Structures
1.
Amino acid sequence: MPKRFLFGALWLQGCLLGVPVDIPDPALVGDPIVLEPKSGPDGFHHARVGTRVVVQFESAVSLDLGASRIALAGEDLSCVQPEPSRSVYKCERTLTGDEVEGRARLTAEMVDSGGVGAGTDSSGEILAVDFTPPTAGCVLTPREANARSKVVFGVVVSEALQGGAPDVVANDDRLEVSPIEPKEGQFRFAVAPAEATDINVTGYELQVTGT
């Protein structure tokens, strides 16, 4: 009578019953990296309508991008996996104005390549979404000047600008506008004739721009 060996079956049974299998849940690994736009003077990334936003994030496992939902500021991102051997994903979106304003987090409803879901994970705040244009308060001193007067144009902005200071230009080529040292939270500009001659300039305008 041939001998029967039950070792394989017993070993398999022991494996199934006694050895836990550790399968990591899909989850973000660290905070995403914002590739675009570049960070502003405050070290944070700012975006408005028309800004192309590109972020890169890593997951604990390989994801099924077709079944997962990756969003930023309440709207979906379009994602790709540049290297199939790595669980690193690059996502992008051009802002349309439908997004939620304020400090935005990346949210991910992730499903792994085996069809296993793990609810929603979210990052820290990675982007400031701002669709409200900044405003400026301006004052010109003195209001009336002669050739010996020092004319200063002061500007106070409603929020920090990406460029730091606003740009100020005159609509008259005979005038020159130059930035001088700020004072008491006010950006200041010297307004003077472009040439050292006695001229009478009236009806000019100073235009303030900034983002």
2.
Amino acid sequence: MMMMMIIMTMMMTTNDYDVDDDDFYEGNDDVDGYYDYNDHDDDEDDDDDDDDDDDDDDYYDVDYDDDDYEDNDDAATDDDDADDNGVNIKNYQAKPTSRFITVSLPAVFKKTDLKFSRYLYWFCQRPLTTFCKVPTHGMASEKENTQKHVFVSHTNPVTGKMDWIIQDENYDYVQEIARSGYGDMLHDTDRNQKYYKAIRQAIKLLRERNKKVKVLDIGTGTGLLSMMAAESGADTVTACEAFSPMAKCAKKVLDANKFGSKVKLIPKRSTSVMLDDMKERANLLVTELFDTELIGEGAISSYTDAHQRLMEEDCVAVPTTGIMYVQAVQSDLLSCWNGIQPVHLTDEISVDIEPKLIRCSGSPSLHDLQVDELAGKLKLLSAPIEVFRFDFSRRNALKKNEESHVEAMAVQDGRIDAFVMWWDLIMDPQGEITLSCAPSWIRRKGEIIPWRDHWMQAMYYPSRLKSVHKDNMFDVFSHHDEYSLWFETEHPVNQRPISTDGVHVAFSRTRLGQINNKERRQVYIDAIKEHVTKDSVCLVVSDGSLLPLMAAKLGAKQVFYIDMNQSCCRIIEDQIKHNGLEDKVCILDKRPEDIISEDLYNLKIDLVLAEPFFQAAHLPWEHLYFWYALNSLRSQLSPNIKILPTNMTVKAMGVEFRDLHKIRAPVGICEGFDISEFDKLIENSSETADEEIEPHSLWEYPCQALTSPVPLAFLDFCQAVENTPKLHQTTELECF
């Protein structure tokens, strides 16, 4: 599938910048983690690989072939030459701090010139929140004309002001449908086939026991598993679905496949289903209630209730067992995602961070990600360790609170920064069918690796670091409550650890990684060193930024700091005190437009610094609130003002994703069943709720370049916003 990647980069320069491809990419792998997509020298790649091997001899080399991954022929382009002539970006993959945007285009493109219409609006009074828009040329459905709309107020993340927008009155409801994620799961061929095979085996087993097959499908979604059971010969099938739009969709899917009379659909939560609704207890329980944590969607309570009230005691369950594994790893990158690291400015000067923030005690949520894309960043310290078994087939077998203690052997010296967690499902009573979420390095060589964005691996960070030595044993303490998991290396606790320092409330994992990125930090350090003097009066406009401390430590006379997020501001304020900078760094507890000369001690600002980063921003260009804030402060700036960053260049390139398109691709026929009614539901909901542009951490999703990068816009922050002309033009992207 052809998609558009929009890359945004901030150029830290005070000189006029000529938008040129060579200039843009030269050295830019050190800025926000961008790699040079124009560099396709295979020999150089090999050299780089050799260097990596030399530097990381102890690191587990995760190597796999793209052929090991499942391909979706239906969703792929017919252009067979694309793989040969396109550039494989996987070898030039973006680092986890990069910011990319994808824009779905309304067609699949061949090797022809691609025209991309841009509508860039920059108004101080009324900027649009949508930065780029691909015109649909009258594709709106007739239904849109009859939909009821309402005016809704919301904060514009670019200007920081309240705007009124027109929105469908059922927007939240429709958005929940569009974001349901069912489509991603229905593209999981491995999942679908193993469920189907296990259901057939379970029905065969019950037949061998001379039993009538009575199926209960909890959380039926589209009705796929119910249809599998009915097609496989079940005598009765009862399906329940609590989400009303999905229940209505399931009814349409069942009718379209001639199963409307064979499957009894109950639009309720399973915990609300009465035995009278079913007439009799079931003896085959079919469910898919799992998330990345396995139990995070309430599987324990749903199974327990169903076994007690709705199932026969000797029933069969598909799946029958869940097995959870962890693996201890060391990774500097993961450490950067779990706390704030000190900033070393010179050999003698550093920005110190409170110890409690460097290694945080815990986070209220898991860190799920495509761990295979961290190849070369993980040092594996143990073999996989089984920590829990969840028996889904027996009454009262699941515990809401459970802990386990396992002694594991270290396979090499290292420091346990995190545990990688995944789970396997034993699908059938005979234990012959296994659905695994294991990372690639656990798989057999040549094994087909299904791509999943709904069930990923997760990282868990123990509250204390522990060093281990090869061939020595270490402890793994594992815990779960009804919905969540946590893992420790010592001092077991029965209560889920929560971050009391506020870091994980104020900062996302991605933001922590961005703050701690060494290359990115060095860009700011070099710029500050170049422009800060003992007479500098600086203004920093960013949320949760260490820039004010860096400027003060490097000799600025006075630093003023605007932070619009209270949680972030509290943490930065504590670090200001921790570094003894209260006299040099002043936090302005005002909106930029309300700041007057007295707030700035009647000083004129001669250096403005920004990352820029703001918690309210969803799309990268929404961080341009910095520009609007600066616009409000023009009267407080000196005539010789220097602004860093000085300008921004936006570039775009067409790419073909290996897998990411599946989250939006229609399902059509799935295991022989027509799911097109579901496709219609998602498509209609997406038209209402989804933007044409959405953010993704593209370092997690391999892709192949189909075009060269081209500049879309150049914005000069030294100019007032209102002096920036409206841009409306079409740019051609030439496919390889």
3.
Amino acid sequence: MLRACALLLICFAVGLPGCGPPQKDPAVIAYEQLHSAVRRGDAEAFVELLGPASRKTLADRVGASPDDTAALAKRVGVRPDWAILDDLPRRARVEPVEGDATRRVVTGPIGGMDAAIPVVLVDGAWRVELFEARRIEPAARDG
């Protein structure tokens, strides 16, 4: 009886880590955090989650240094009613970029089409290249 209980306990301990919901890809988490920052009106978090190319694009548009998060956040003025939320899919999935472990493409539905948003690994953290996003026509997805 003791041996059977020990065996059952070992099986339970070995099987336990495999239980529960699957872990989200960190690129999707970064994307969801960016979406959440916009909904909260948190401009600093929004800027912090942008990838280098998007920070540069934003800095060029608002006349600030891409390295100055506080100045970019102040000039951008993210608000919860910002129209950009209409262009960000709420349900996102991730697709790896073949041959490049530092890049992912987050896709999700917007108005009957998917948006493809690059996410890059920068200094150990995933950052969203929001201004490199593009819409994927249904025909492009299928073929």
